[in-house]
Amino acid sequence: MKIYVTGIGVVSAIGSNVDEHRYALEAGRTGIRFSESHNLMLGEVPQSDEALAKRFELSGDDHSRTALLGLAAASECWAGNKPDGQLRTGLISATSVGGLDRMERYYLQAKQNPSLDIHPLMIHDNGRTTETIARALGITGSYIGTVSTACSSGANAIMLGARQIESGRLDRVLVGGSDPIALFNIKGFSSLMIYDPDICKPFDDARKGLNLGEGAAFLLLENERSLSQTGNTPLCLLAGWANATDAYHQTASSPEGRGATLTMRGALAKAGISPEVVSYVNAHGTGTDNNDLSESAALKNVFGAAIPPFSSTKGFTGHTLAAAGAIEAVFCVLSILSDATLPNLNFKTAMKETGFVPETAFRKGSQIENVLSNSFGFGGNCTSLLFQKLH
Hints:
- The structure is a single chain.
- 56% of the residues are buried.
- The protein starts with a strand and ends with a strand.
- 34% of the residues lie in helices and 20% in strands.
- The longest helix has 15 residues, at 289-303.
- The protein is α/β, with parallel strands linked by helices.
- The protein has 2 domains: 4-230, Peroxisomal Thiolase, Chain A, domain 1, CATH 3.40.47.10; 239-388, Thiolase/Chalcone synthase (Peroxisomal Thiolase, Chain A, domain 1), CATH 3.40.47.10.
- It has helices at 18-27, 49-55, 65-78, 100-112, 126-137, 153-166, 183-191, 224-230, 258-271, 289-303, 314-317, 324-338, and strands at residues 4-11, 33-35, 40-43, 89-94, 143-147, 172-179, 212-213, 215-222, 236-245, 280-282, 310-311, 340-341, 363-364, 370-377, 381-388.
- The strands form 3 sheets. Strands 5-4-6-8-1-9-15-14-10-11 form a 10-stranded mixed β-sheet, sandwiched between helices.
- It has 12 helices and 15 strands.
- The mean pLDDT is 94.
């Protein structure tokens, strides 16, 4: 069964829609800036909660930033589509932060006023983000679910959606993820000593860690039955996917890249292709010492000496946690549509352990047929997706 990608939507520090992201990727323009309020480098979306809520005629006090960012990306992806009782339609959204941004705000206010209304605590639930998006878009179909598997969440939402179509439970499904910046996460990553005080440098020998970002992205997946009724134009195929557990450490990947190796091999096997025909790999590439070495080991395990062009795009957006796999999936679709590999910003010196050199420019000129996207989460939850050009 073929699973078609027919829509994409995205918001992050480099843009509020797909076209703005395409221009930023081609120009090599980062969205990571020094935040005076947090005193560190962040990939912040330059839209307030109030502006987002007004756009969708919602009350900003009743919705988390996770839901508002998610709705911005989901509405772009869903645009032009309508509820259809003849099509089994689903929505699967991923988040790790959920309503934590509202929880943090409530906590600070409650310290001053212990009798504060506890209503904002209801927004903390991760599933409320999904329900808000579904309600706003009129999706009341067969499957509405929420995924939370740390930094692989967005990719897992896409994979779960594909499985729902493949199993015959759904005809079309809106899949993706959303996460805002939260103080809890900033402090958490800082306590692990993996936050770079400067702009992140994935796969560089001088890398010091990650920069956090925020954003959301969604893809619309359809089967042939759905296509025949919606008339949507396919952008590419989601041809392969796989998930594996590294089972090495709560917050670190195995030095041998075991989980990443399994997922890449699994996605290739699912797609029925060999490593030699992969055109480009969008790496997880957080810029931490552990991740980049582990993922490099996995690339060598899968591709041997013939590693295809690869890069991390987190130098554009920062690490957007549960949204990362979905945002980078959109980037993979753009790579296929543009026949271009995407740049790994801020790279200067190859890691002495590997000598690997990622792509450093938006490079057109070769046919991009198969693109592999990697997403790895704490707890060793690893996922790879394989996107394929249509012919």
